Every structure is written in structure tokens, then in C-alpha cells.
Amino acid sequence: MTARAWLRLVIVGGRISYRALFNWTSPLMYIPTLLVSPLLGTLFFAYLGRYAGGRDDTFYVLGNGLLAVAGPCVFGGMMALANERRYQTLGAVLGTPAPRGAILVGRAVPYVGNGLFTAVVVTTLAALMLRVSIRIADVPGLLLAALAAAASCTAFGLALGAIGMRVRDVWVISNTVWVSLWLVSGANVARSALPDWLEVVGGLLPISHGIDAARAIAGGSPAAGLIAREVALGAAWAAIATLLFRTFERSGRRHAALDRG
Amino acid sequence: MPRRLVRIWLLQVKQMSRSSFEMMGAVLLPLLFATLAFYVLRAGTHPHALLGASIGAGLMGTWSTVLFGAGSAIDHQRWQGTLELIVAAPTPLIVVLLSLTLATTTVGIYSLVATMTWGAILFGVPLDLVHPAAFLVAIPATIVALATLGLLMASTFIVLRNANALANTGEFPIWLLSGVLVPVALLPTWVQPVSSLLAPTWGVRALREAALGGSPWRAIGACVLCAAVQLALAAVALRRVERRARDRATLALT
Lengths: 261, 254
Hints:
The structure holds two protein chains of two kinds.
Chain A: H1 3-21, H2 27-52, H3 57-67, H4 70-86, H5 90-95, H6 100-130, H7 139-163, H8 171-184, H9 196-204, H10 208-218, H11 224-254
Chain B: H1 2-17, H2 20-43, H3 50-80, H4 83-88, H5 93-123, H6 132-157, H7 163-166, H8 171-177, H9 192-197, H10 199-212, H11 216-247
């Protein structure tokens, strides 16, 4: 396959799959689910923080602003694969000779952009509402941290989606992970305050290093290492997603169970 | 009518008990909410608020179960092609939906018990209730408050394609407005009148005052009164929404 055809598959295929498989594309769904809900979540935890008297609003705005990428990226990445099965189209997709790498990359790109957009909107609105000031000089670094978090979350979402090619109700897993991230990602509780094993779990899931990076940037500390760690984690999850995708594709073909609902 | 209410309730409880999604939501999420609340509050200067956090986290779980239960119940009926049959049946739609919502709150009661037990075992939160009798009365009052609010929201789900997904957005507003973890007094002044119109706000206050001290009976009375208003509003909204969906032939919308 030529590079141009590969790129076409990524762009056109990615666009079509995003429109077809992402449940929340209409403004009526997108705005409340991906923007309003995480914004209210940020306010909820900021007020809880005020009541608890521990951390200041900046801690919650940066943590939950970045955590907002998990909505479009984890759930989106998952829908990008698992919904094919729900709509009985997985067989048709896997029946084509299209390179699987291009299929996965094409599906990931819209969600990474979506996640970045969500993080920017939620962080900006939450900062304005809670009067948290973010230095202009920190914005490029924060964007980079959000981009890294969005990429690793999408890779993680694709891994869940690949599991959805085999498991009937993958939403059980994604919803549990989603709420677990509120706890273990460090968005609302410093990871150092958690038991050791939970701290380790948080470090293996996406976003946590991105959140640490955002806070380091806002605090004037170097964050390149933390962003690199988030990118490396994303690469690892992408490798796991590819492996699971290939494994479940093979076993689905062998057992004629690709579209079994 | 009560027999139908009980039968539909029982059928829904059975269906939910066989759904891994519903069970995960009911069993695991309240414990995660409770753990999160404990760590945030323990990190701060309000460790005495941990019993309140146990109760609040339980109610967070109950509300999530009600919200997703109501959303997914309608989605499931639509996907199974049974929504039109339910609407066409002589049993009033509100009876069916009330039963479905009460079924989700029944599963949600577990949340409250689980988070309080979880808090006591793992975080050493004492279960010393100041007014135990009032606490026992406040539980069903709060459950009914959450169920009727869920019913009010469920009426709008009938005209939406992805009701289950939109249910996501209903969690935080009610957690915030009803003061499950953060006292309503700490919210902006303009929000507080809105909070006082919601039955769960009074339910939360009743449970907190019964557990931590105060005068819970007045809050229980306000909770029941607001729940009755919510039920009446849900009945009106449901009639309108049902009529609209039948007029436009959008019941089977998927």
C-alpha cells in the first residue's frame, strides 16, 4: 500500500468511523456529556476541596481539567472499536484488506483532537468560574501535557475497545476505570496520599503523569520528564491495543464470532 | 394498580440483577465514591465529616444507579422494541416508569449500607447515630425523593435517542445541588434556592441531622412534600412527552 493510500485510509476512514461510531457527536449530546459534565465535576471537587480545607482550587482545576480528556478519549477510543460489533459491522471492516495500523490510527486521531479541545474548554471555563489564574507563559506546556494525556487515553480506550471485540458488555470495564481515574489519577487526591498499590495502579493508567506535568508547569517546575512518561505510557497502551486487536480478530474469525452481540 | 406496581418492580429488579453493568454500578461505584470522599476529606481539616461522607457517598451511588437505571431502562425497552407496547398498554405509563425507577432505588439502597460499612471497616468511621429512629425513617424518604427526581428526568429520556448517555450529565448537578458531600451553604448564594426545591436536598439534610445531630424530622417532612411535588411534575411532564412522541411517531427512535 502506498503512503498516500495509507494516509487516505487514516483520514477518510477515521472521519467516517468517528461520525458513525461516536455516540455523542450531536451538539445535544456532545455539549452536556463532554463539556458540561466534566465542568460540573471540576466544580464539585473544587467545592469539596474547599469544604475539606486541604488543596486550593488550582489543584482541582488542573487535575479535573486534564481528566476531562478521559471522556472523549477513553470512551471514544472504546466506541471506535466496540461499537462496530454493536452495530454488526465489525465483520465488514475486518473483511477488508486495509492495514490494521491505519484503521487504528485513523480511529484514534479524531478522539485525540476531541480530548484536547475538551481539556481546553473545561480548564478555561473552570478557571474563569473559580477565579483561578493560569499564566499565559504556561499555556504551551499545559497544551502539550493535555495532548500527551489525550493520546495515551485514546490508546487506552482502543485497548478497551479491542476487548469489546470479545466481551459483550465492555461498558462495565470502561465505567469502572472512568470512576477509578477520579481517585487514582491524582486529579482529586495527591497520588502520594494513596496506599502504595493504588499509587502504582494510577501510574500505569493514562493521565496521571499528564496531571503531574500540568501541576509542575503551573508550579514553575520542569515537566518534560513527566510528559515523556505519559507519552511512553500511551505508546505502551497503543502496543497493547494492537496486540489485543490482532488476537481478538484472529479468534473472532476462527470462531465466527466477530459480530456476536 | 399496586399489584402491577409490585410486579413491574420485581421484574425490573430481576432484570437488573442479571445485568453486569447495573450490578457493577450498584456494587462497585459507591465504594469508589466513598474511598474518594474519605481521601479528600481525610487530607483536609474536616476528619469529623467522615460519617457525613459515608452517607453522602452512598447517596451518590444511589443517584447514579437511579439515573443510569432510568436511562438504560428506556433505552433497553426501545432497543427491544417494547416501548410502544408499554405505551399502548392500559396501565398508565407513569406506573410503569415509577416501578422501574423504584426498582433502581431498591438496588441503590445497598449503596448506603455498603458505603457506611466500607467506611467503618476500612477508615474507622464510627457508626454512632444521634437519632437512629429518625435515620431509619429518613432512608426511605430520601430514596423516594431520589426516585421521583429520577422519574422526572426519565420522562425527558423518552424523546431522546441516547437517553443512557445523556444520563451521564445528570450526576454532578444533583450531587452538587443536593449537598451530598458539600454542604449547600458553601455553594454560591444564587444556587441555594434551587437546592431547596429539590427533595434529595432535604433527604440528605435529614440523614445528616439524624446521624450527626440536629432536628431531622422537619427535613424529613420537607423531603416528603418536595417528593410529592416532583411526582406530580413528573406525571404532567410524562403525559406531555408521551403525547408528543405518539404524535410524531418517535417512540421507536433509535
